[in-house]
Amino acid sequence: MKKHVVLLPGDGIGKEVINSAKDVLNAIAEEFNHEFSFETHEIGGAAIDQYGTPLPESTVEACGRADAVLLGAVGGPKWDNNPSHLRPERGLLGIRKALDLYANLRPIKGFKNLLHASPLKEEVVKGSDLLIVRELTGGLYFGTPSERRDNGQSVVDTLAYSRKEIERIVDRGFQAAQQRRGHLTSVDKANVLESSKLWREVVEEKKSQYPDVSVDHVLVDAAAMKLITNPTQFDVIVTENLFGDILSDEASVLTGSLGMLPSASLREDGVGLYEPVHGSAPDIAGKGIANPVAMILSTALMLRYSFQMENEGKLIEDAVQSVLDAGFHTADLQIENGSLVGTAEMTKHIVDFIKSQNAAKC
Ligand code: NAD
Ligand code: IPM
Ligand code: MN
Asked: Where is the Isopropylmalate dehydrogenase-like domain (predicted)?
C-alpha cells in the first residue's frame, strides 16, 4: 500500500523523536511491502523562525493533502515571551482546528514488567488500562481572545461549547467504550460550570443509544484523585479540552513517564494527526536522551486508525514491549536495573525487532 505522510517535527525533542518514527515506518514498509513517502514541514517555533508565523499556509496545505500527519512537539523558552499570536503553541492549536481534529484519543496502559517504573505502588498501577477521549477543538483553548483590561490588570478567557461539539465527542467516547470494556466515565465540573451542565445533559441523553455501555459522571477534581489512587476503575474517560490535557499528563504517571504516552487526533473521516502527549522537553532537548516510545506508539496508532494496518501497528507495539522487556530504557524511566540507552539506540532496538520478525518469517 502507498501512503503519504507529512512530518511536522516542531521544536526541541520533537525534532529528535520524529526521526525515530521515520525509522520505524521505513522498517514496517520493508517488512510488509508498503511504500511510505514523507514530506517535512515546519510548525511552532521553527516555523516562527523561518516564516514569521507558527503555522505557515504551506504546512496547512501539505497536511490537508496527506494521508496522515505525524507531529513531534512544539514550544520552547526562546519563544515564551512572544505575543500570543506568535507563540509556537498557536501553531499546534491552529492545525488541530484547521483539520477539524476534534477527537484526541490518549490510551494509557502500563507495560507489563514496568509496573515498578511508576512512583505509585505496584498494586495500584497493576491492571490499569484506560483511554482518555479528550475534546480538542473547543473550550477555553478556543474562546474569544482575551484582552487586558484595567491597565492590564484583568483578563477574560471564555469557555464555550455548543451542543453539537459536545455530542460528537461524547459519541466518540461511547463508541470507544463499546470497543473496549463497555464503561464510560464522563468527567466534568457540573457542580460549578454551565458548560459542564450541558455536557452532562448530553451524556445522559445519549445513554439510551448505547445500552451496552455503563456510564458514570465524576467531577474533575475527584477524577484527578481517583486516577492515581484507583486507576483500574476507569475504562474510557470522555472530557472537555483542558480537563483532558491535565488528566492525561497525570495519568502518564501510571506508565512511569510522560515519554510513554501516544495520542491520535482525529476527525470523522479517518484522516488524523498523531502526536505524543509530551511537549518539546527543553530541559533535555539536544542531548539525544529523549524517550522515543510515545512517538513510536503514536506511529502505531496512525497505522491502525488512518491506514487500517492492524498487524503493522501491533508489530510496533510488540517491538516496544519486547525491547522494554529486555531491559532497554531511556533515562526518564526510573528503573534501577536494565540498560540505559539514548534515543537513537532505543529506536534501533525497536527497528531491529521489527526486522527480526521479518527474517523469522522468511
Ligand atoms: P514537557 O512535556 O515538554 O516536559 C515535561 C517533563 O517531562 C520534562 O522534564 C521533560 O524532560 C519530560 N519529558 C517529556 N517528554 C519526554 C520524553 N519523550 N523523554 C524523556 N523525558 C520527557 O512539558 P513542559 O516542560 O511543560 O513544556 C515544554 C514546552 O513544550 C512548552 O513550550 C509547552 O508549551 C510545550 N508542549 C508542547 C506539546 C505538544 O507539542 N504537543 C505538549 C506539551 C507541552
Ligand atoms: C498537549 C499540549 C498542548 C495542549 C499545548 C502545547 C497547546 O499540552 O497536546 O497536551 O494543551 O493541548
Ligand atoms: Mn498537554
From this structure: 4-350
The answer to whether the CB of 295 falls within 8 A of the CB of 72 is: yes
Average pLDDT over residues 57-72: 97
Cα separation of 290 and 330, whole Å?
7
Atom 4 of ligand 2, residue of closest alpha carbon: 245
Q: Write down the pTM of the prediction.
A: 0.97
95 Cβ inside 6 Å of ligand 2: no
Q: Specify the ligand 2 atom closest to the Cα of 242.
A: 11
Quote ipTM for the complex: 0.99
Residue ranges and CATH numbers for the domains of the chain are 1-108+259-362 (3.40.718.10), 119-146+155-254 (3.40.718.10)
Please work out whether the CB of residue 73 comes within 6 Å of at least one atom of ligand 1: yes
Q: Which residues contact 239 (CB under 8 A, 6 or more apart)?
A: 132, 133, 134, 135, 186, 187, 188, 220, 223, 247
Q: Which residue's CA is minimally distant from atom 33 of ligand 1? A: 75
